[in-house]
Amino acid sequence: MIARWRFLTVGLGLAALVPLALPYSSLDAVAQAVDSMTAGKEAKVQNVQLPRAPRPNETVWLTVTIGPLPFGAEIRISLPDGTAIGTAAPFGRVLQGRNLTFQMAVPDGRLQSDSLAVIAEIAHPAETALRTPTDDELISIEAYIQ
Predict the structure, then answer these.
(1) What tens digit of pLDDT does each residue of 89-139 get?
(2) 52, 117 in Cβ contact below 8 A?
(3) How far is CA 80 from CA 68, 83, 126, in A?
(4) Rounded to an integer, what distance in angstroms lies between the CA atom of residue 54 and that of residue 110?
């Protein structure tokens, strides 16, 4: 059997390379591999409160404040449906006791109320899976309307 390979996005932004044509027993093996990649990985959804619901011509911005991160790490901010909002990646090291602030625009049409659910995860080259940032790594996420 000739199989064509394709990337399959699974779960919280993880991707797996799987063939398009597989016997049923192989599909079970792929499902077990995907389950093992996402096992124990629960993304923490944070609710960010806005002063009011945005109007159609307004943009919602997030202010993300981070503390020291491991060298090469970055914090990815996304919506629960997987839509990326932005990445907080310091240039070089952040000194202990210092914080950095990043501004990110929420994609238009994604918000109809006065609260927004976001997911923050740390990506690090030395780690294979994304993880939830600690309180020292992600200081705060606040929103405002412009």
Answers:
(1) 988 776 777 899 999 999 877 677 888 999 999 999 888 899 999 999 999
(2) no
(3) 25, 7, 25
(4) 10
